Amino acid sequence: MKPITLIGLLFVAGGALSAQSAAPKSGSSMDCRACHTAATPTKANPSLVACPRLKIKGYHAIDEAPATMSLGAEGAKYGPVNFAHRAHAHMAETGKGCVGCHHYDQARPIQKCKNCHAVSRKREDLGKPDLKAAMHRQCLDCHRDWNPTGSCASCHQVKDAVAKAAAKKSTTVAAPQKIIYETGSKEGKTVTFFHADHTGRFALACAECHQQESCRGCHDRKRIGANNAVLTRHTTAGITEEQAHARCATCHAKDECSVCHKGMSPKSIGFDHGRRTGFALNRFHAPLDCKQCHKSAGGFTRVNADCESCHKGWQAKFDHAKTGLALDEQHKDLDCTSCHEDKTFHAKPVCKSCHDDKAWPAQRPGKAVGRETAKK
After folding, report:
1. pLDDT tops 70 at residue 142
2. What is the dihedral of CA 357, 360, 364, 365, to 10 degrees?
3. Pair 181, 191: CB distance under 8 Å
4. How far apart are CA 110 and CA 36, in angstroms?
């Protein structure tokens, strides 16, 4: 290649890169390469470059999103849409993310739709949908995937009594409590996934397991039923063992196969902390969120069961009456280990270190009190 030709190409390329970061002046013609990396972009392959604003202003966190917002205007039959924005933002993580609705404008500040889409149906640029059409496109693309016969009332507030009664038939499908997978594994053909525990007790977000899936996978009433507490699934044929375990391996990589693979589905509906870990949760620990004790990222690793590991200096201020037993004068000043040889306090207290003729619970070192009395 001749030197002069190479210099010319570098000059053209440099000019295109500069155009990407600079907004065109009003009335000036825009080079297509300011927004596209290809000379002939298509609908299937638009070849869009990243919006320069995103690099400057940063992204919004999902929890910054408003919980709900009103979309649309009052009409003759329907009112505006009470849009659950934050819930949709969380669901968007399983697919395209915020950009699915906000196009290339999810940085600060979020632009209003009408800044780009004309409010009036009569518009100069017929290649760009008006505001009403653009908003309906965003909703219908997803909603018709799992609810093809959905009416306007499934989103819009309705005004007359008949329509309101019809709208009360919710299209929302309750999440299952557990999913039973039938596999061909020799370790055990049945794997029971406690869905409610993973989303509630373990606080996993949907996107941590669900990625690039169809809406109907969670929302199709005909496919999974309206209120199925237990679903049965067959593992997908033609996938490798690594692919089948990919979603679970993040937390269960070090578990034995028998932890998940059973001969049949367990009758219990949820996670039994005592059976699974050997540490049964008492009434004080049971209501806690798992992450209050298991603070390491990427799964729930075993923690030190010694009370002192979490509650520093607790023995100096502990009121034994909270357990339902107020200690008598002979026992209230003793160290805990005098009666509780097990530092996790799961084993029965012993009396043999001081008393040869006494044993728990036949003889108690104090007076039983009600929990309400102990709180006072």
Report:
1. yes
2. 80
3. yes
4. 22
Cis omega (within 30 of 0) for bond into 266: no
Beta-bridge mates of residue 230: 178
From-to residues of CATH 3.90.10.10 in the chain: 62-167
Mean pLDDT of 314-325: 84
For 27, the token pair is: 């009335």
CB atoms within 10 A of CB 270: 13
Which residues is 238 bridged to in the sheet?
A: none
| Residue 207 structure tokens | 């996107």
Provide the pLDDT for residue 68.
92
| 59-68: Cβ within 8 A, 24+ apart | 59/98, 59/106, 59/107, 60/98, 60/106, 60/107, 60/108, 60/110, 62/86, 62/89, 62/90, 62/93, 62/98, 65/89
Can you give the pTM of this predicted structure?
0.57
Question: Is domain 62-167 annotated with CATH 3.90.10.10?
Answer: yes
Measure Cα distances from 174 to 180, 201, 224, 229, 233 in Å. Answer: 16, 17, 10, 8, 17
Percent of the chain at pLDDT > 70 equals: 79
